[in-house]
Amino acid sequence: MPVTFASRPGLPRSLSGSTLVVGVLALSLLALAAGVPLSGGMATAVACLALLVFGLPHGTLDLEIIRAQQAGPWTGMITLVLLYLGLAAAMYGLWRAEPVLALGAFIAIAVAHFSEDWDGAGPVILRAGLALALLAAPTLLHRAELDAIFIGLTDRAGASAVTDGLMLVLPVAVGLGLIAIAALWQAGRRDQAIGGLAALTGMLILPPIIGFALYFCLFHSPRHFRESLLTLNWRGVAAWGWVVVPLTLAAGAIGVLVFGLEIRAAMPERIMAASFMTLSILTVPHMLVPPMIATLSKLRQPHTLKTETA
Question: Coil, helix or strand for 18?
Fold first, then answer.
């Protein structure tokens, strides 16, 4: 059985994050109109730290979900932890060796991951289109700022080529994204449609990191955390706190380690690099380990059946 998250289209709107996204988007637009520097160093640092504080917990239940849905020699806690750490170390190694390639890989993985937010929108090309539109949207009004972010993240001037690629796919991605939002609305998934439109608006208008933090912290992470709890049927802090809190602290320790290793000229850039690199380092095993374990389980099933028959 593949590892999947439970889908609960009928959940109360208050739990989905769309209301928060719309509310914070409105406040952010008012702040911009009032001249508040949302792209300043302090705002960037706070947004990057928010990505870790509110983003890391949603992946801490991965191991428990795998253990609940799969059975076999690969689902022992030590094996899973070593696999997670190995993939995380490989991704960090890619950042050190080829940072621009690592940035491109992170964006590709993020598109695949964020497309999961739009289940019910129809074909995968629409879901992936909306996910890509969110990441490419800042190139329309914030091209120079996105260049600065990518160069600061990789410490390579060549990272502007990634911005070029996102700008190139922007028209098609936005078109697909709007069709996906319309499909969600038509399918009765109004909350997802509103969240998608608000997140896309934020990524178009707000400074890139602020727009990304709005989507990631208020829509994506709470949605996946909620679905993980539903999959495990864990209710209340007492049920999940003993797993989420220690693993979030451990993930935070990885962020502190990356912060210490990645030196940048300015502190906001150093915080930004540590935050996004930590997210990418943890997203790789978050995305790859469940299908890897599911594949291994499928490969083992014929052998198990033969043994039981004999």
Answer: helix
pLDDT tens per residue across all 310 residues of the chain: 334 443 444 333 434 568 888 888 898 888 888 888 888 788 888 888 888 888 888 888 888 888 777 666 666 678 888 888 999 999 999 999 999 999 999 999 999 999 999 999 999 999 999 999 999 999 999 999 999 999 988 889 999 999 999 999 999 999 999 999 999 999 999 999 999 999 999 999 999 999 999 999 999 998 888 888 888 888 888 888 888 888 888 888 888 888 777 766 667 777 888 889 899 998 898 888 888 877 777 766 655 444 444 4
Angle at alpha carbon of residue 239, lines to 238 and 241, rounded to 5° = 65
Other Cβ atoms less than 10 A from the Cβ of 276: the count is: 24
In the numeric block, the tokens 């001249």 are attached to 35
Query: What pTM, to 2 d.p., does this model score?
Result: 0.84
* CA pair distance 288, 301, nearest whole angstrom: 20
Burial class (CB in 10 A: 0-12, 13-18, 19+), 124: exposed
Closest CA to 276 of 207, 209, 217, 219: 209
| Residues whose CB falls within 8 Å of the CB of residue 262, separated by 6 or more in sequence, listed in order | 270, 273, 274, 277
Amino acid found at 200: L
**Other CB atoms within 10 Å distance of the CB of residue 60:** 22
Neighbour-count burial for 253-274, b at 16+ CB within 10 Å, e otherwise: ebbeebbeebebeeebbbbbbb
One-letter identity of residue 159: A
What tokens does 174 get? Answer: 């936005």
* Measured distance CA(66)–CA(52) in Å, rounded: 23
In the chain, the N- to C-terminal Cα span, in Å, equals: 24
> Cβ contacts of residue 44 below 8 Å, gap of 6+?
207, 209, 268, 271, 272
